[in-house]
Structure formats: structure tokens, C-alpha cells
Design goal:
Helices cover 36% and strands 23% of the residues. The protein is an alpha/beta fold. Strand 7, helix 7 and strand 8 form a beta-alpha-beta unit.
Length: 276
Amino acid sequence: MYDSIALDIRSVFKTFGGNGASLALWKRGNGSKSSRTVAVNHINLSIRRGEIFGVLGPNGSGKSTLIRLIATLLVPDGGEIVVFGHDIAKEPMAARRMINRVSVEASFFKKLSPFENLIYGARLYGVNAHEAREQIRVILARLGVEEKNIYRPMEEMSRGMQQKVAIARAFLSSPVLLLLDEPTTGLDLRSRREVQAFVRELRDSHDTTILLTTHDVIEAEGLCDRIAIIDGGNIVALDTPENLKRRIPSNGHAPTLEEVFLQLTGKQLVTEDQAE
């Protein structure tokens, strides 16, 4: 399955100033060194074609910044990102054609229905309208969206339901590289399982490479072939879930991934719901 490199990240870093400015602005004298925050710190990472790769870390660890850098929504202050042989700095359009992204802040035309939003998205991605109509119904059904909700305005739907539509929009284009930034945030347990099953299906049926960020250890362990643990913009460990758990003593019981994270970072993973 893993016969080539889908995503190659080479010494990538991103720094923000205290006023939201990047390192480039600081270099021009618009910020002070003490006010800078390192979001991504010289990360090196290679993800193989067909792999489901997880980036596990708490809020503020740098994982969402990393996703935005890969998606070309942010410009790195240094390093290189190569998507299936295309350097995103030198060939941004070619790289973007390979990528689709789902985030917790997905945007829609709120007055339109999921069906109308997805038809619009299909046209943007060049999907045939007739084929798109059939795919939309199938994908939404697989994600547990009832037929009656397909034609309701998005503004009447819960955050969790809107997140399912965002995931459907990404799946509709059959992306080569799918970036999932906290994709199941706001979903109930059943909905999370439906999304996770569909992620596996997308990889297995469409040869899609998937990069998933999460602070959910159960999701990371259940979905991902390999996991990078990130803290303070640094990758502190990278391996398969089983090998990561072998890094700490058993102490009479099988170590959990959360215990691994705690030992390596000194921090506990806290979800948004728990924080609230």
C-alpha cells in the first residue's frame, strides 16, 4: 500500500508575534523577539501514500497551524512542504488540486441546504452534477444525516450536523490528500463512529492519504497507522500506536496512549468539552 511519499515536510517552522504578526514582520522590525510565539518548530515529517496519519496534541500545540501550512492557508517562515512531488511554495496550484481540508470552523452558505451547498461544492471541484446528486445522498446517508435534513437550511442545524456536511463536502471530491483538523469535534459518539468508519472506507476504496489532527486518544489509536505527538510546536514522538505504548513501563497494566502523552509532555489531554 505504501509505495510512495504523499507528504514530505522538511524543517518547517512558523512563528507568530504577540500582535499576530509572523516572523517575517518581526524581521522587518515590526515586533520584538520576546513577543514571538513558536507555533511550529522545525518539523520534519514524511507521510506515505495511503496512510492514515495522526497528529495528537492538546489545543494550542501547533497541530492546526501545521494543517493550515500544508493547505497553503499560511506561509511557512522556513522549510519546505511537498505534496506528491509538488513544492507548495513553487507549485501552489498543483499542490492545492491534490488537497481537501475539513476543519472545525467549516463555512457554508447558511441560508442554503446541505444539498445545495454540496452541489455548489461539487461544481467547484468539477464533479458532474448528475453524479454529484447521487453521491451526495449516499455520502450523507453513510454519515447518518436523515433525508429530511438534507433540504433544511444550514442555519437551522446543530454544529455537529454542519460538521458532517463539511466532511461530506470533502469526501465528494475524492481528494488525494485529505486534511482532517479535529473532524469529529462537536459530534456525539455514534456520529464520531460513522465518520471514522467513512474515513477508513475513503482510504481503502479511493487510495486517499489522510492526515488527522485530534486531541482524542481513542480516535487516534483506532484510526491511525502512525501518530506524531506534538507539544509546543515540536514533535516529541512518532511511531505506531502500539510502539508508542511500549515506550513507557507497564506498571502492572497495559499502558494507554494518554499515559504515553502525559509522560512525554508532562501534560494531560483536555478536550474542548472538558475545558468548558
